[in-house]
C-alpha cells in the first residue's frame, strides 16, 4: 500500500499508525496498529474516533492485512469483527461494505487500492462540504459546535469544523463557541486543540451554558456532525446534540447538521432505527486521559451513559452534505435515498 498521511492516521513504510486521541491534547503519541484486535481496542477506547475516521481506519487495516497476504476468509471475518466495534456510526459499516464488495468481486489483491480510494474520497467529500457550507456563514458569525468534527475525526478538513475553517479562511471574522461535550470531553480536549491550531477565535463553554448564550443572542448558528442520518433526516450524533437542537429551535437559532454521504443509512427510515451505544459507567463518574483517571462520584453510583442521541428532522434547519444543502422539504421528498 502507498504511504498516506492525515492529522490522526497515517500509513508509512507498510505500517498503520493512529494518533492516540485519548491522550490529546497533553500528549501526542502515535500507536502502531498491526491487528484486528488492536484496532477494535483502539476504536472502543476512542483512541481513534469520529464517524468517518473509524470507517477509514478499519478499511486501511483490512487493506494492510490483504497486502500482507492474509486470506479471503480471514479478511471476511476480520471485517465482521471490526463492524461490531462501535454500533452507531454507520460510516464504519458503509466503508466495510465497500471493502467486502471489492473483496468478493476481485479478491484480496484489490483491497489495498480500495482502502486508499476510501481515504482519498473522504478528503474530497470534506472539501466539498466545506465549500458548500461556508456560504451559509454570515460575516462575524458566532457559531456553536459540539463534540469534534475536524481533521481528527476525518482524514480531510472535517465536516462541521471544515465548514467553520473555510469560513475563517474566507476572512469572515467568525468566532466559535466550543461545547465541552461531556462525558468524554471531545470539545474541551480536541476541538479546542484544533481551533487553536487553525487560529480560529473560540471560547470553550460547558454544555449547560449553551441555552443562555442563545437567549442572549450570542449564537448565530449551530453546526454539528453526525454519526448516522436516517432517510427521513433524523440523525444520531454525540449525546447532547438533541438538547442543543431543542434549545436552538426555542431561540430560533439556525441548526445545521454537516456530514458526508457515507454517514447516510439508506436502510434506516427514521431515527428510531439507529442503535445507540451505551458506554461504561466510569466515563460519567469521572474522567480519564493522559492526566490519569479521576473518579468524583461514589464508585458504585448508578449511571446512564448513552454515547449518542437522536435529533428529529423537525429541529434541523438544513443538512449540509457533500452533494448539496438540503432543507426539510427536500428531505421529506426522500432526497437522501438518491445520493
Ligand atoms: O464518540 P465519538 O467521539 O466518535 O463521536 C463523534 C461524533 O459524535 C461526531 O460528531 C461525529 O462522529 C461526526 S465526526 C465528523
Automatic annotation (TrEMBL):
<keyword id="KW-0486">Methionine biosynthesis</keyword>
<dbReference type="GO" id="GO:0046523">
    <property type="term" value="F:S-methyl-5-thioribose-1-phosphate isomerase activity"/>
</dbReference>
<dbReference type="InterPro" id="IPR011559">
    <property type="entry name" value="Initiation_fac_2B_a/b/d"/>
</dbReference>
<feature type="active site" description="Proton donor">
    <location>
        <position position="227"/>
    </location>
</feature>
<protein>
    <recommendedName>
        <fullName>Methylthioribose-1-phosphate isomerase</fullName>
        <ecNumber>5.3.1.23</ecNumber>
    </recommendedName>
</protein>
<feature type="binding site">
    <location>
        <position position="86"/>
    </location>
    <ligand>
        <name>substrate</name>
    </ligand>
</feature>
<dbReference type="InterPro" id="IPR027363">
    <property type="entry name" value="M1Pi_N"/>
</dbReference>
<keyword id="KW-0413">Isomerase</keyword>
<dbReference type="InterPro" id="IPR005251">
    <property type="entry name" value="IF-M1Pi"/>
</dbReference>
<comment type="function">
    <text>Catalyzes the interconversion of methylthioribose-1-phosphate (MTR-1-P) into methylthioribulose-1-phosphate (MTRu-1-P). Also catalyzes the interconversion of 5-deoxyribose 1-phosphate and 5-deoxyribulose 1-phosphate. Part of a bifunctional DHAP-shunt salvage pathway for SAM by-products.</text>
</comment>
<dbReference type="InterPro" id="IPR037171">
    <property type="entry name" value="NagB/RpiA_transferase-like"/>
</dbReference>
<feature type="binding site">
    <location>
        <begin position="49"/>
        <end position="51"/>
    </location>
    <ligand>
        <name>substrate</name>
    </ligand>
</feature>
<dbReference type="InterPro" id="IPR042529">
    <property type="entry name" value="IF_2B-like_C"/>
</dbReference>
<feature type="binding site">
    <location>
        <position position="186"/>
    </location>
    <ligand>
        <name>substrate</name>
    </ligand>
</feature>
<comment type="similarity">
    <text>Belongs to the EIF-2B alpha/beta/delta subunits family. MtnA subfamily.</text>
</comment>
<dbReference type="InterPro" id="IPR000649">
    <property type="entry name" value="IF-2B-related"/>
</dbReference>
<dbReference type="GO" id="GO:0019509">
    <property type="term" value="P:L-methionine salvage from methylthioadenosine"/>
</dbReference>
<dbReference type="Pfam" id="PF01008">
    <property type="entry name" value="IF-2B"/>
</dbReference>
<keyword id="KW-0028">Amino-acid biosynthesis</keyword>
<comment type="pathway">
    <text>Amino-acid biosynthesis; L-methionine biosynthesis via salvage pathway; L-methionine from S-methyl-5-thio-alpha-D-ribose 1-phosphate: step 1/6.</text>
</comment>
<feature type="site" description="Transition state stabilizer">
    <location>
        <position position="147"/>
    </location>
</feature>
<feature type="binding site">
    <location>
        <begin position="237"/>
        <end position="238"/>
    </location>
    <ligand>
        <name>substrate</name>
    </ligand>
</feature>
Amino acid at each position: 500500500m502507498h504511504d498516506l498521511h492525515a492529522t490522526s492516521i497515517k500509513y508509512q513504510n507498510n505500517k498503520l499508525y493512529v494518533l492516540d486521541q485519548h491522550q490529546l491534547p497533553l500528549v501526542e503519541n502515535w500507536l502502531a496498529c498491526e491487528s484486528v484486535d488492536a484496532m477494535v481496542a483502539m476504536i472502543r477506547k476512542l483512541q481513534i474516533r469520529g464517524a468517518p475516521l473509524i470507517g477509514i481506519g478499519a478499511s486501511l487495516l483490512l487493506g494492510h492485512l490483504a497486502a500482507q497476504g492474509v486470506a479471503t476468509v480471514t479478511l471476511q471475518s476480520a471485517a465482521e469483527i471490526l463492524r461490531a466495534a462501535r454500533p452507531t456510526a454507520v460510516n464504519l459499516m458503509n466503508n466495510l461494505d465497500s471493502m467486502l464488495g471489492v473483496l468478493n468481486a476481485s479478491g484480496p489483491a484489490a483491497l489495498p487500492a480500495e482502502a486508499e480510494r476510501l481515504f482519498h474520497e473522504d478528503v474530497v467529500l470534506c472539501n466539498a462540504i466545506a465549500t458548500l457550507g461556508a456560504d451559509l456563514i454570515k460575516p462575524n458569525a458566532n457559531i456553536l459546535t459540539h463534540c469534534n468534527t475536524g481533521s481528527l475525526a476525518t482524514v480531510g478538513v472535517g465536516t462541521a469544523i471544515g465548514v467553520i475553517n473555510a469560513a475563517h479562511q474566507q476572512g469572515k471574522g467568525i468566532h466559535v463557541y466550543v461545547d465541552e461535550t461531556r462525558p468524554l470531553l471531545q470539545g474541551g480536549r480536541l476541538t479546542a486543540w484544533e481551533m487553536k491550531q487553525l487560529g480560529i477565535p473560540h471560547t470553550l463553554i460547558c454544555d449547560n451554558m449553551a441555552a443562555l448564550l442563545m437567549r442572549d443572542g450570542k449564537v448565530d448558528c449551530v453546526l454539528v456532525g453526525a454519526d448516522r442520518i436516517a432517510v427521513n433526516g433524523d440523525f444520531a450524533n454525540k449525546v447532547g446534540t438533541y438538547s442543543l437542537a431543542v434549545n436552538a429551535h426555542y431561540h430560533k437559532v439556525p441548526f445545521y447538521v454537516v456530514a458526508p454521504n457515507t454517514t447516510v443509512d439508506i436502510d434506516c427510515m427514521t431515527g428510531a432505527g439507529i442503535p445507540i451505544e451505551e458506554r461504561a459507567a466510569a466515563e460519567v463518574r469521572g474522567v480519564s486521559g493522559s492526566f490519569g483517571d479521576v473518579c468524583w462520584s461514589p464508585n458504585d453510583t448508578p449511571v446512564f451513559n448513552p454515547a449518542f442521541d437522536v435529533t428529529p428532522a423537525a429541529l434541523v434547519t438544513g443538512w449540509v452534505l457533500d452533494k448539496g444543502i438540503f432543507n426539510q422539504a427536500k428531505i421529506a421528498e426522500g432526497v437522501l435515498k438518491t445520493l
